[in-house]
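hey m, so remember when u said the tokens were messed up on ur end? i reran from scratch. heres the input so u can diff it against urs
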Amino acid sequence: MERRHWLDRKENVTKVARGLYLLCGVLVLLDLFIHRHAVVGVDGWFAFYALYGFVGSVGLVMTAKLLRLWLKRPEDYYDR
């Protein structure tokens, strides 16, 4: 009998995802109350660092997907 992990249940995964969404929303809203010492100008905008992190993460994933096309080896590459 295989032991099930607590994240194998769909309702627990939903709870974790909702908790992360709530945490991200609270952190973005807290940005309203934090005084930023902007160096460049745009880094003083509301939720700049949240957007910067999101765009950077999406950019990394897209770059990895494009590089995969070039770096991918055939399935039997090591069996030759």
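this time it looks ok to me. The radius of gyration is 20 Å. if urs says something different then somethings off w ur setup not the seq
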